[in-house]
Amino acid sequence: MSIAGMTLPEMMVAVAIGSIILIVMATVFMTSARSFAAVSNYVDMDSTSRNALDHITLQIRQAGALTEFSPTHLKFASTPGQTNSFLVYDWDSATGVLTESKTGETTNNLLTGCDQLAFSLYNSSFASTTNLSQGKGLSVNWQCSRTVLGKKSTTENMQQALIVIRNK
After folding, report:
1. What does the CA dihedral 123, 128, 133, 138 come to, rounded to 10 degrees?
2. How far apart are CA 96 and CA 89, in angstroms?
3. How many domains is the chain built from?
4. In this predicted model, what pLDDT tens digit does every residue of 13-72 receive, in sequence order?
5. Is residue 44, in this structure, part of any structural domain at all?
6. How much is the pTM?
7. Going by DSSP bridges, is the β-strand pair 108-111/97-102 parallel, antiparallel, or unpaired?
8. Residue 2 included in any domain
9. Residue 77: which domain range?
10. Rounded average pLDDT over 111-133
11. Residue 138: what are its φ and ψ, rounded to 5°?
12. What pLDDT score was predicted for residue 2?
């Protein structure tokens, strides 16, 4: 009666092949997890951006006259004809946060993680202007990003819109 067993070289080959298979499986798992996190992050950023853009568009179209303008700041009379109630949008480049505030209400953070944001004012023929009385359209565009697993690797494509100022 003989007892069959594996020799040392056979055992080393089996361990090597098993290790290679485990390394490949771990790499595929890590890559898939990172891709899933990046796609989820992008979908969340896109949804947040669309909601913010829809909200800004609605509020600006219902607001009164534009009273202050800069590439990072907008101030509207909150209701057409009122002078003591305001709707204000501010972007802080240091924190990357776009805020909306209304007189007598709490400040609302519309966007976070904005690397770039700019407001532009246009007249009725869509030429750029800085004259508030000529302003008929507002362009807003931004680019946001977040970190995934400690790396700033997911950046959203530019979101932009041209909003017509209806109430003057």
Report:
1. 80
2. 13
3. 1
4. 999 999 999 999 999 999 998 888 878 888 888 888 889 999 999 999 888 889 999 999
5. yes
6. 0.75
7. antiparallel
8. no
9. 8-164
10. 90
11. -120, 130
12. 66
Count Cβ neighbours within 10 Å for each residue of 100-109 and write b for 16 or more, e otherwise: bebeeeeeee
Q: Given a cut of 90, is residue 95 above it in pLDDT? A: yes
Decide if 1 is inside a domain.
no
Ramachandran bin of 81, using left for φ above 0, alpha for ψ from -120 to 50, beta for the remaining angles: left
Query: What tokens appear for 53 in the block?
Result: 């853009």
Q: Residues 87, 100: contact at Cβ < 8 Å? A: yes
Distance separating alpha carbons of residues 112 and 48, to the nearest angstrom? 9
Closest CA to 108 of 59, 40, 156: 59
Measure CA of the first residue to CA of the last residue in the chain; give whole Å.
103
Tokens of 114: 């904005």
Determine the Cα–Cα distance for residues 88 and 66; give it in Å rounded to an integer: 10
